[in-house]
Batch of 2 targets.
Target 1
Amino acid sequence: MIHFLAMAVGLLPMPQNQPQMTEMAGYLIVPHEPVDRSFNAGFSMYVSAWPLLESYPGSDFQSGLFGTWMFPQFEGEAPKDHYTDVEGGLGWWRDTRFATKTPKFIMGGVTLNFAEWANGPGAGKGRDWANPTGLYGVAQLSPWVIWPPDGLNLKQGTRGELFGYGYLPLPLTKPKAKTAGKDVPTGNHCWTLFLNTANFKGPVAFFTPYFWSKASAENAKLSGLFLDSRPSEPNKAVQMETQHIPAMVAKDRTGVTYARVAPTHFPNAGTGEAPLIHQITAYSKAALWSQVDRWFGGGTRVSGAISAAESSTHTFKGGGYSTWQIYLPGGNRQNAPEVDWTSYATPIAIDRHTYGIRWQRELLSQTTSPAVLTLPEYYRLTKMSDDKQRWVPVKQGDIPAETGLVEAKFPAPTRTTEPYVTPIEPSSSWKKPGPVAGPFKRNLGDSSEVTYYWYRFADQPALQNADLTVPEREALQKRVEQIHRTWTKERNYLPPNKKGKLASIDPALIVKPPKGYEHGYVPIVTRQGWRSLSRKQ
């Protein structure tokens, strides 16, 4: 208050105008060496998980951490106007309802040109169960982890540990000659999410083949073009995609433009560079598929460990760049000035299989946690030697008081109080035949409460909506019972990391099957709401 009174009586310059809200957005591009295209049966990687922003700013905030896009592999040029992939990962999204500064993980499978997408069991595009565009696209496989519809929570306080994940196909189903009654086939690639974290390891959930082939039933020309039958392209882009970090801009009395960005963090290793990406690995079908296929055919039991001998790991040579821009309100977003990233960040190869960033630390500040650094918060729009304008980092003390940037406050976060709920009609696949045990409740680290039930695996809603006959679902049930008896949660499936410490998922997500339901049953979340509100309803 005293500061503003001083401005009013002329002791300090008054702001020329109020700062205008805008955003910072763009990509961090990570080059890596290609592998042979025969390693086309999935991938795994370890990526750093950390709080990108100092505090959660609200529902406009959307950013991934480092991740990739897994597309179908084609022998020649990919079909035109045919976007489909798996592009989930760690991050924050505009439809995240129970967000904290700790990231969550989603699966992010996309069917033809975003007509549908699936983020996990019971989660996908929108929440309209009358038109479930992707809500039934993922089936729960693990009997030890519950999957909240808002995303898989990481342990609160995660700050730079490595989250290990990957997708490999499993032959859980058999190929089908017809899809939804039409003369188009559906393959049997059940792309399965495997995790390697400090407190959980193993397969969690898989995309049903029908999630991909459904578009073929509607247009037979698309038959055979999706991940239900196609291998994966091993040479994938690795990037960090940011769509919105809050920012504000203002001019001083001479017309110079300045910007301020919400405090943005990156991992800090103290001495040396923190690993951001580690061990991007591509697999052949011999790494897991072939063994499991023989096992299901009556062969030797398989441990589930993915063979590193049947893989190829991408290498790094350093390099890479940023396309981060701070948009000028009312300006052309296509040609918005870029942040002068190279003034404080140099991408490097920490070793052949590990990627990181060497920081110009005098331009960064240390947070209260030694595990993360804060990137420059203030910038001046400057014409560079190449005649392009860039946002050059400056110290807080270099910001003219009349801009009002230092005193300005970013808006308080807005949140929805609406819970995630699933159908309650007696005739729905959630109730018929329905669960075998529950309800059970868990309080999660994001302050939400989930309600879940135990379903017989083949009776879970996703599989009742997967274009499978009763005999086909029963055959699938027997295969999953074999997996549940054999693939326990405490040993490695993905090749273990050789650098860094592993992150943990929220301990509240780890459950134990009720007695008598240890094999062939899975936990399915039916509701997620704010904890305080859940108790009142």
Note: Residues 20-248+262-360 form one domain.
Target 2
Amino acid sequence: MKDIRETETSSGDEKGEGISRRDLLTAGGAALVVPFVFTPGGEGAKAAIVPGSGAVGAYIKIDTTNTVTVVIGATEMGQGILTGLSQLVAEELNLNWPQVRAEHAPASTLWPNPYGNPLFGAQLTGGSTSTRGWYAPLRQAAAIARDTLIAAAGKQFGGVWTLGQGGALRKGTSRVLFSSVVVTASGLTPPTTAALATTTRFIGKSMPRLDVPSKTDGSAVFGMDVKVPGMKFGSTIHAPVQGGKVKTMPATSGGARLYNLGTAVGVLADDTWTAIQLARGAASQITWDVPTDPNAADSAALAAHAQQLMTSPTASVFVAEVVGSPRIPPAARSIDVTYSLPFMAHATMEVMNCTANVTPTSCEIWAPTQGQQFIPGLAASITGLPADAVTVHTTLLGGGLGRKFETDYVAEAVNLSKQAGVPVKLIWSREEDFKNDYYRPSALIRVQAAVGSAGLGITNMIYRNVSPSINIQRGTLSGNNPEDTGAVAGAVGLPYRMGARRIEYVPLLPCDVRLGYWRSVGESYNTFAVESAIDELALVAGRDPMEFRKGLVGGTGGSPRSLRVLKALETLTNWSVPPPAGQARGMAFLSGFGSFIAMAADVAQSTAGQMVVKKVYCAIDCGVAVNPGAIETQIQGGIAHGISATLWGGMNFVKGKPQVQNFNHYRMLKLNEMPQVAVTVVPSSFAPGGVGETGVPCVAPALANAWAKLTGTRVRNLPFYPGATMGDG
């Protein structure tokens, strides 16, 4: 067999900013690079080749060593997204896995603000959108690369060539590597579309993670690992109450210069610990302008106001969904119950950090971020530089959970570097991290519902959610919806068959607690209310919770995917057989993030009278399962996260002051408390759905439903055990 080997030199780096398609394709005459942009739209998303636009969200590189690198706009934060997305490219190019690499794309300056986009944007990781959004564009871009290489082989060597395996092309007994034709390919105009592969060498397989080797040998670079020559270490101190801004401050403290950052004061030192101590020492010398209404950031006052709004005839109500005219008769087969959930901190293992180097002509940033596309414009506004003078390197994340979607910590690092004139590595203290989060909104939810006389279905429902609005607080509303980001997500568009219903949202205003996107967003609180209420309705109807739900989604006009997932959970748990003596089982269901998930939990009671979670079962239909192993680990992580939040999580505010400052009072699930977890991925040919968010919402109602069955006590206010410390349990 003839082997025509490559002779080109190695490629240079691609910045991806303000460059033409020709520049990308030639890449110094050494590589084929297929750039493409992300177009939101889920199953109908497209890849677009972008001549000269500069808006390169990602691209595929094939270099002279025949290595294929997938350069992606999504952020790897432990979910395995770089591996899963690389599998799509490997499938289309029929590669061998050892030749595949993946890395984060440089931030583009031209992506629009994604608020209101159903799948956010190209370089914004959240809402379980990465696989959903990139699946079609990546496969199409890889297929275009394949067809371009095949055409190049024909032009360079003559004849008709086909795709071989392992980064090769074939014609009879002849074989050439991709790298042998990249220069020729770079001179061709690629097709606008290409047929997708029908093979399954990689899609649907649990491939080894591309990020694990470096994390194992210590070479992986997280935000806190970045080192820049000549850098100083920074720390910041913020106002003791939510919403405070610097009023007065000394020029120096402890012999170190202080820097006014507007909402914080910064200090630099030769190491992080010294910087943190200097910042703490300066705290008593700073005065702050604070909001005039202390009750707007006081948990007790906000809760009392929410209670008033729940029944107020003059409340500003947004009706998110209405069918008919629901009426709840005062009958035995109805419920009228209220659920409450607290503000939640993200509490990521890696605190907020960022490294920035601002010079008169450039700004270079290294950030563990979920929102790359926000950063060039932000840095430009701080430095006065053009956005194309800003370079953003996305590092690995030690947990994101929605917190690193925000850019406050990035802005502080850039501001410090600009003022000090040196590279700055900013690392928040854990206390500053807890006290200056963007917290998940609290929620008070009332559910009034009734079942039919035979107990077979829900005839009426009135649902009202009273909670603070992220979009109102940020001024990012679109249209007439006061909460576009999901205050009623998980309560509207339910697959359950219902009669008359009205789903209402009432914004809790004013609220000065900083609000943000917490893993699973609105579903994290609405699913607790909905699925707890479904169990309570099953009880008054005298129905088994599993059979009750199956009846609500089955039959004509039902939801076949919902029913399939419920049956999968029924089989996984052997539902008809009770758990061991001293235990009880509860369940919950979610249709959200493009996926369908059913979960059950077996719980027991400790000698201290508290819950012990023994085993959790999960069945999920997330459409095409690109990497089943990664799906299982994501569900496991979501369950651990959900248990911690359900049993102990919550942030309390007193007159604007956050009451939790470290993990000693923010109880987390301990290793020896992790339950057994059984996950089944339901085979599906639908477009990929989300996974990262879906493991969390069902945990709370499944545990509450199990606890009610075990003890006869219904918990409607989370967490189960407020005020718990890490010494408890």
Note: The first helix runs from residue 21 to 26.
